[in-house]
């Protein structure tokens, strides 16, 4: 665990930050020699980082593995060994020069395929999203219409119960009509009395 922490610190400080600062100075001073030197280093360091991703998984159990990583980074940076320049000139540059055309063709094909795949999946994603939005809107509209319909039927029933028209039958008898009924016997009684008196005479 301690070896891993020390190796990570060494790679971070001496393998990344230190070369980054001197690369900045080379760009600022426009020194072609220093610029080429640090460009070769960054190419080797990129390959080292790529290989490190896999070796950390499969070779971390190897004795002195992290110590060897520290020694390799120091060898790359040392102005005496010039490890990055040596690896680049002996191995990387000849390999890339012989395979450059094939690598460029593969990169162009991968770029075109990735663009086509991105457009294809983008269209499918938009179609799926549009379909889901339409279905959600239709379901929501149907539920809303059913809800409004139930509310309207309840409201109509309530309105009919509260504001029902009065029955059209005859009005209840009032005091005037009652007195009229009581007056009719009195008139018939006076008429019968006058008829009986005329008969006796």
From TrEMBL:
<feature type="compositionally biased region" description="Low complexity">
    <location>
        <begin position="188"/>
        <end position="201"/>
    </location>
</feature>
<dbReference type="GO" id="GO:0008017">
    <property type="term" value="F:microtubule binding"/>
</dbReference>
<dbReference type="GO" id="GO:0071782">
    <property type="term" value="C:endoplasmic reticulum tubular network"/>
</dbReference>
<feature type="transmembrane region" description="Helical">
    <location>
        <begin position="6"/>
        <end position="27"/>
    </location>
</feature>
<protein>
    <recommendedName>
        <fullName>Receptor expression-enhancing protein</fullName>
    </recommendedName>
</protein>
<comment type="similarity">
    <text>Belongs to the DP1 family.</text>
</comment>
<dbReference type="InterPro" id="IPR004345">
    <property type="entry name" value="TB2_DP1_HVA22"/>
</dbReference>
<feature type="region of interest" description="Disordered">
    <location>
        <begin position="158"/>
        <end position="201"/>
    </location>
</feature>
<dbReference type="GO" id="GO:0031849">
    <property type="term" value="F:olfactory receptor binding"/>
</dbReference>
<dbReference type="GO" id="GO:0071786">
    <property type="term" value="P:endoplasmic reticulum tubular network organization"/>
</dbReference>
<keyword id="KW-0812">Transmembrane</keyword>
<feature type="transmembrane region" description="Helical">
    <location>
        <begin position="39"/>
        <end position="64"/>
    </location>
</feature>
<keyword id="KW-1133">Transmembrane helix</keyword>
<dbReference type="GO" id="GO:0005881">
    <property type="term" value="C:cytoplasmic microtubule"/>
</dbReference>
<keyword id="KW-0472">Membrane</keyword>
<dbReference type="GO" id="GO:0005789">
    <property type="term" value="C:endoplasmic reticulum membrane"/>
</dbReference>
<dbReference type="Pfam" id="PF03134">
    <property type="entry name" value="TB2_DP1_HVA22"/>
</dbReference>
